[in-house]
Amino acid sequence: MKRQIYCTFPKEQIGEPILYTLGQRFKVVPNIRGATINDQMGIVFLELEGEAPEVERAVEYLRSRNVRVDTVQTPAG
Length: 77
Fold this sequence. Notes:
By secondary structure, the chain is an alpha+beta fold. It has one domain: Alpha-Beta Plaits (2-Layer Sandwich), CATH 3.30.70.260. Helices cover about 25% and strands about 45% of the residues. Strand 2 and strand 3 (about 40-50) form a beta hairpin.
């Protein structure tokens, strides 16, 4: 499965290798589709690919690191 999400990283997490850890700890492939990062926050458009339970575990890991996760709504069709 593939899931597209927006991740908002707080100032305290910008320097942390969270996405690297995500790819190492879980059986998912993180694909950065776009990003805007400054000194105050980081916003990343991320696609996670993997088995559904692993993708969910990866999303929960992001949330546990105080990353806001919003699902991208894709048009029906």
